[in-house]
Amino acid sequence: MDRDLVQFHIALLGSKQPFEITPLQKQLYAAYTKGERGHMLPSISKGEDFERFLAAFVAAFNMTSEGKVHLIIHQRVNPWAIEQIKLIASHIFSIRKGKSSREVIQRLYLQFQSVLIGPETRGPEPKRWVAYGFVQPDVAPNWMKMRLGAPIKKPKA
Fold it and tell me: Measured between alpha carbons, how far is residue 147 from residues 3, 38, 40, 80, 150 in Å?
């Protein structure tokens, strides 16, 4: 991830709620930059945390400039995550409607095509990946466990 994720987030999503960057997302981006590819969720979490999911999506979307990226989503939250991706995509395209060139819109569309979404964790480690929705007791391959950071707590306001 060669681009600054905080700046990428702001450029991609703007600054309106619920897409405005948060202190928690800044912490997650700092960890992604150090090579972590996801973070364990607190064990009490059901996994449906838009703030954390948005950070995982932005980190994956950022890597599409290098090629295909696997956004590995735990199967327990996969249906919810697909709905969030639709919401994010709608927002990304709506804030550019009438303001961006056809080439910019086409590039964004191709970037979306480069994000491979799903719960698949079998096989060798993908070249580029980000994970979302896993907790400590989850069964995951060693290549994933070694690159998932500890749960990051939300900063106090």
Answer: 20, 7, 10, 24, 10
Cα distances (angstroms) measured from residue 66 to each of 33, 61, 115, 127: 15, 10, 11, 10
H runs (alpha helix) in 3-77: 5-13, 23-33, 50-63
Tokens of 127: 């070249």
Tell me which residues of the chain have a pLDDT lower than 70. Answer: 1-3, 42-44, 120, 136-137, 157
SS3 at position 26: helix
Q: Are 132 and 81 in contact (CB under 8 A)?
A: yes
The domain segmentation of the chain, as residue ranges, is 5-145
- Distance between CA atoms of 156 and 15, rounded to whole angstroms? 21
